[in-house]
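Session log. Operator J.P. requested a structure for one protein chain; no other inputs attached. Running the standard single-chain path with token output.
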Amino acid sequence: MKMDYSKLIQDDLTAEWVKNIIQKLSPYPYLADILIILSSFAAGALVSLMLFWLLRRILNRFYSRHCEMNEALQGCIRRMIVSFVGCLPVMLVGYCVWCDGIHEWVAVLICKPLWGIVLVLLSLTLSYAIKSFGLWYKQQRHAEQRPIDGLLRLAISFVWAAAFILFISLLLEKSPIYLLSGLGAVAAILLLLLQHTIHSFVASVEINADHLVEIGDWIVMESETFGGILDRQEIDGIVTEISLHTVKVRNWDRTLVCLPICDLVNKPFINFSAMEKGGGRRIKKAFLIDQRSIRFLSREEVEILKEFDILKDYLESMGSELIQYNMGRSMFNARHLTNLGIFRIYAKRYLEQNPNVRADLTLFVRELAPKDTGVPLEIYCFSREVQWVPYEEVQSEITEHLLAVLPCFGLRVFQRNSDIHQKVDAHVDVVGGAFRFNSMNNP
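Structure written below.
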């Protein structure tokens, strides 16, 4: 295409200085191309500077309202704005090279590289936008428990993959859909090679959406091992890291286990985070009571047990009730208090008044089916302490107290040497008994 500015020179509306410039440039046609390109780039750069100043103020104000503007976030926002406004001069040059008067081969030569630069700049803009979102998310309250670094890296990979496909379609002057349809076999191979990544991505999305596991959660899970001494081992510890492919768990024995993230979706596991956040950890323990020590209590023994403040009102109310019920009935048809029943009431009231036990949650003491090892008396309650060491201390204190007070009710815990007896005064008692009554006669 040959330049022709004769109409501008002959037009009366054209300024004289414009006519002089055209006349001076007419012997140098390519110099006009350079001037048009430089002038369009300069105009676009001027607009970009104004837009950069405006967008920087808007985004800084927006982010400062929702998070702390640290150095990393400010730098990421600045690079994002520079990449975005940098597209304007390039796009303006790409548009102006097709104006009348520019040599066609010049336009063809620089047009595709210009649009390639635009794709790169737009991809950089989206990448920095994703990174700035990640920096903002890290300052949120649940960011440490629900990391999304793997998802952000995958999103950035998709952005650059899409930019590469668009650039190839521009070079070949083909539609991206046509290009993708021609890559069917390649796509199938990529899906085969990246199937583990795809499964991990789906599992990561499901875990984050349903809040199945967060960093800091205590999980318990059985895991298969190969080549070890044991065929199976138990994962029992705190989640320290969640990435796109793996989850790291530090066991209570200080060992570090790295398991695939898909296992948290495909295999059963226990998450104790709800228990810790609820402020109550379950105590479920059974005492095996020797069946031969279960019997009725005499009036003297009932009077002695009234010395326990937590039993006094119960024994008095039950005493008056039994006197009224047993009036006129023989001993075999009357109702009597049993030492195991009174101990069950004592254990329940002891737990209700224990400051380390949550009385507002489920709390009971029950007797299970008798076995050849005795009658299981189970306590079921929730400790206020949820951390491991304080919880064990609370549980041990309850166990120690109930075991120590058990002989006060004439009961024995079943054990292998429970048949070894000794004679104390005129009565038989278990060896090592911590507390003895002076009389143990049935009513």
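Operator note: The first helix runs from residue 6 to 10.
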